[in-house]
Design brief:
Blueprint lengths: L1 H12 L8 H10 L4 E12 L4 E12 L2 E7 L4 E6 L2 E6 L4 E6 L12 H4 L3 H4 E7 L2 E6 L6 E8 L6 E8 L4 E11 L17 E4 L1
Length: 203
């Protein structure tokens, strides 16, 4: 997370066009001392062909290159992402699916883009900007992701929302709230430990 923020600032600051951007200043000031992040989110997914919108909510935890993303409500799931290892645990079915995380899964797992933005200059082109938003276009194929919009505001964690649009014009918007930084998250939060009656499948 710390590398993500530093790289983002350096790339934009080095370009005179962005030098005075309030968005960049907010990112730099807020992120330069972040080591870990936790909070809540609301995810709004829109499927264009079905004209259908679904909303999910839950909690998230990020520390270095590890992410824990847990959905609450009617279909509770916990997603563990550690570099190239992905585990999706279904609490109702008591079933975990373990697989290798690859480029093609970015469209299905928007949360992973938080870590991908550590290489923003290498992976994205900034095609539009405003005082509080950045539009990123992947330079190479990243699953079915077409573009990413970041909305920024003045808080300890300055990313207010991410909106991912795919090649079929489907969208996933993630709004963050009640975010806390540098609470010294325990490593155990990011480790999946199956219970006796859990089933673990590997793909």
């Amino acid at each position: 997370m710390k590398i993500l923020l530093i790289n983002l600032f350096l790339f934009l600051f080095a370009n005179p066009v962005f030098a005075q951007d309030n968005a960049i200043t907010k990112l730099n000031n807020a992120y330069k001392n972040i080591n870990d992040v936790s909070g809540n989110f609301i995810q709004t997914s829109y499927i264009k062909d079905l004209d259908k919108t679904q909303k999910f909510k839950g909690k998230f935890f990020i520390k270095a290159d590890r992410i824990r993303w847990q959905y609450e409500g009617q279909f509770p799931q916990i997603i563990y992402l550690n570099k190239e290892t992905l585990i999706v645990y279904d609490k109702i079915r008591k079933q975990a699916i373990k697989s290798r995380f690859s480029e093609e899964k970015y469209g299905q797992l928007p949360l992973a883009l938080l870590s991908r933005m550590a290489n923003i200059e290498k992976d994205f082109e900034i095609t539009e900007k405003s005082e509080d938003s950045l539009i990123l276009i992947p330079k190479t194929k990243m699953g079915n992701v077409k573009r990413i919009e970041i909305i920024i505001y003045e808080e300890d964690f300055p990313i207010k929302s991410l909106k991912i649009t795919d090649n079929a014009s489907n969208t996933v918007k993630i709004d963050f709230y009640s975010v806390k930084i540098n609470v010294n998250l325990k490593d155990s939060i990011f480790k999946f430990v199956p219970k006796k009656d859990d089933t673990v499948l590997k793909y």
